[in-house]
Each structure stands twice: as C-alpha cells, then as structure tokens.
Amino acid sequence: MTYSTKDIPAEGLSACWKSPSNIALIKYWGKLGGQLPANASLSITLSNAYTVTRVAASRLDTPGSGPEAEFRFEGELNLPFSSRINTFLKSVASHFQYLPDVKLSIESGNSFPHSAGIASSASGMSALALCLCALEAQFQDKEAGAPGFYEKASSIARLGSGSACRSVYGGITVWGRHHDVPGSSDEYAVPLHFDPHPLFSGLRDAILIVDPGEKKVSSSVGHGLMNGHPFAESRFAQAGRNLSELLVALKSGDWQVFARIVENEALSLHAMMLASDPWFILMHPNTLLIINKTEEFRKQTGAKVCFTLDAGPNIHLLYPEEETERIASLIKSLKLYCFNEKVIEDSVGEGPKQLTCR
User: Which residues form the signal peptide (predicted)?
Assistant: First the structure.
C-alpha cells in the first residue's frame, strides 16, 4: 500500500505504548551478522519494570529528507540519546515507507529509576518499535495487533537491542531458531507455544540491586568477545540443550530441573566473561554472598527459589507465587547486601499495552 505526506493530517499522528523489560533464563550471548543471535534464548516478561513511549509524527518540509527525531526522557531533552535514536531510525527506514517523510517527537519514561540496575534497552526499544509499527498501521488504516504486527515489531526492536525483541510478548518468550519451538526464528521472538505448568504461571522475581551503576562492559562489547572465544561453540551447544530441557520442566512443573538449568545458564554467562580475552569479572563480593546465602536457605527450608543474573552484579530471585511468604524472610535478610537495601519486587507480566495518547 502506498501513501503520500498528504495522508498525514495537519495535527500529525501519534502512538503510545507501554512495554516491559524481561529477564532471560536461557541466555543469549554472542551474535551473528545483522543482529542475529548465535543461540536461541528464553525469557520471562516482567510486569512492574516497564517503559512508556509516545511518538508523534509530523510532516517534514522536505519530504524524503528524514527521518528526524527529537527525544525526551522523562521530560528532559536528551541530545546524546537523540543521536542514537536517529541512527537507529535511519537503519530501519527501509522497513517503514513513511519514515523518510516525517519528523518524530519521542517522549519516554521508565517505571523504575534509571539507576535501579535494570537494563532499560529491552523495554525502551520494544516500546519504540511498537509505536513505529502502530503509526504504520494508522497509515494503512489497520488496527495495531493485526496479523504480522507483533512479528514486525519484534524484528524492528531486535535491530535496536537484541533482548528487546522478546519484550513484545507477555509471559514466556523464545528468540532464536530452535528445533523444539515451532515457528521460532532468529529474526523475531515468539511466545511460548504451550501453557506452562501452573507452578510457573505466577512466577515472582525479586531484583536485588547490588550495584545500581552502569555495567563494567557494554552488552555489545560482551557479545563481541564471543567471536573467537575458545569455548564459544560449546556454550552455544549447551544453551540449545538447556533450552530443550527447560521446556520439558516448564510443561511438567519440575522445579528442581528448572532451578538447576536457570542457575547453570546464569553462571555459564559469567564464566564466558571470565574466560574472555580481555576478561571481565562482573560479579561483586556481595553478589557471591547472596548466591551462597540463597543456596543455604534453600537447603535448610526446601523452599522453591533460584537465582539468575544478567551481565552485571545484580541478582534476580525467582520463586513461585505459593512461596511468597516463605521467601519474604530470605529477601529481608539479603537486603543487607544490597545498595541502600534496594529490592524491586516484580513478577511475570502480560506484555505490552497500547495506551491512549495525550
């Protein structure tokens, strides 16, 4: 379908989406060309950690010279991020016929503090991708959410941040081609193809903030260190096996297998960084204390609880909803090892939502 800038009303068009962050249980670590993953990953979409983004599109005086964008984060003009967003928009302009003819005003904000230790790229880039696709749907006189909408939004989000492609769906999501996941693709994420056991449907995530600062090494640099890594191929094969086994545990409700694989994946990610050249130690002393005390608590009480980490020092404690009361005492004891005793309570969420623009 074609259009012209005359299709843009004088007051412009706008779209607004709320999109959550996610935490990977099977880790994606290592890229192929074109922002494609070296191994399939699986994540849970969170509920309380999200970004709200509004994008307003207006006509450019010189059609075809765009896209142009002005970016505001929590009300403040952010020139460095505006530059990054403009670079991203130019890279995806071929996917949206309208982009070269518009100027975009982008306003964004997070539900969590910028220094909370939660990576906002997944929620931020997925929210932006959903807005871009929603604007395209308006040009095409379609509803956001029509067939192919979320696949395209996931693919566009991936080009901005790999993990962002998993945030366009709620619940449990898989990104990367895998023989045990029908319809899986390296180009976009897909929702889990079955309903998980009730034990996992209300999964809770307590995020223990050991250090709220920026990561010692960026994700891009970390992924790049897998090129030529002596253990890369073994790691990619391990991730594939772990994903197959985790799918069985999610279906059957086997917590012990779930916990073993999730923790193995987290520690394997950090092992890759330890064995990289140059090497990086991303955990802090208190990270190790929390891990050890969590293991002690589990052995003493038999509680269903496990941990995972991203490429940083902060700990995610995962546990079923039925364990909430018992795990509360563990979390209380672990606050002593967190920055300003900071803990963010979250849970598996329903995914992004389109909001009414104001």
Answer: none
- The C-alpha atoms of residue 260 and residue 264 are separated, in whole angstroms, by 6
Residue written as tokens 């982009």?
A: 99
Neighbours of 199 (CB within 10 A): 19
pLDDT tens-digit map of 132-160 = 999 999 988 888 888 899 999 999 999 99
Which of 62, 50, 46, 54 has its CA nearest to residue 17?
A: 54
Q: 272-287, pLDDT tens digit by residue?
A: 999 999 999 999 999 9
Helix (H, G, I), strand (E, B) or coil at 51: strand
Pick from 184, 171, 213, 252: nearest CA to 28: 184
Question: Which CATH class name applies to 199-347?
Answer: alpha beta
- Give helix 79-92 / helix 149-160 axis angle, nearest 10°: 130
Helix (H, G, I), strand (E, B) or coil at 219: helix
The span from the CA of 5 to the CA of 59, in Å, is 7
Pairing assessment for the beta strands 36-37 and 315-319 based on DSSP bridges: unpaired
The answer to whether the beta carbons of residues 342 and 212 sit under 8 Å apart is yes
Torsion, Cα of 73, 51, 100, 155 (10° steps): 150
Distances (CA, A) of 24 to 166, 242, 278: 9, 13, 24
- Tell me the Cα Rg of the chain: 21
pLDDT tens digit string along 212-244? 887 778 888 999 999 999 999 999 999 999 999
Query: What are the CB-based long-range contacts (under 8 Å, 24+) for 232-238?
Result: 232/30, 232/38, 232/272, 235/29, 235/30, 235/39, 235/268, 235/272, 236/30, 236/38, 236/39, 238/268
Q: Provide, for the chain, the percentages of residues in helix, strand and coil under a 3-state DSSP scheme, each rounded to the nearest 5.
A: 40, 25, 35
Class of domain 9-196: alpha beta
